[in-house]
Specification:
4-stranded mixed sheet; globular; 185 residues
């Protein structure tokens, strides 16, 4: 969770959809916005440093009543395709190199079908309960990430309508967000 009490915003960043863009938007709302403009903060640093600027202080239920709360989702199949492309095809991250090797070893070549099969095979033992699913955060089911059944969000936006939903959230919170594209997939 990221909470900006000054702008009355609460964002569940655990859905892994548009997170880099929203982190950038929150950074631009902060007193540290110069870190973005002078290029000091990289994408990796963004994910570590910006949440520190916007901690959730207080009871979540109370904060939810006083803020414009939102999360972003995307079609589950599109999300899987994006995770496959970003983490296995294009990635230079050593962790995902290990996933790549695992798929290659267990299923033959690394294809989207084999990637999905790996997730299906791991799900029964790693996701026994939705709230404690231990799959990778990039393909973990949304139900395990942001409490969609328990949290009365003001807005659950869709990646497919990102710019319109961003504008709508901005109007609700009386904030103008910049159009920032970090990943397009």
């Amino acid at each position: 969770w990221m909470h900006d009490p000054e702008h009355n915003l609460l964002f569940c960043r655990n859905a892994k959809v548009g997170t880099t863009t929203w982190l950038t938007n929150f950074l631009l709302l902060s007193e540290e916005r110069e870190l973005y403009y002078n290029g000091t903060i990289s994408s990796k640093k963004l994910h570590v440093e910006v949440p520190k600027l916007f901690p959730l202080n207080g009871d979540l239920r109370e904060v939810l009543e006083e803020t414009t709360s939102f999360s972003i989702v995307r079609h589950p199949f599109v999300r899987l395709v994006s995770a496959f492309q970003d983490k296995l095809v294009d990635s230079k991250d050593n962790h995902y190199a290990g996933v790549y090797r695992e798929i290659n070893r267990k299923y033959g070549e690394v294809t989207f079908s084999n990637f999905v099969q790996m997730i299906l095979d791991k799900s029964p033992r790693k996701c026994k309960e939705p709230r404690s699913c231990k799959l990778d955060k990039h393909w973990k089911p949304f139900i395990s990430r942001c409490g969609y059944c328990d949290v009365p969000y003001t807005v659950i936006a869709k990646a497919e309508n990102f710019h319109q939903d961003q504008e709508f959230i901005g109007r609700l919170a009386n904030v103008t967000f910049q159009n920032i594209e970090s990943h397009v997939s």
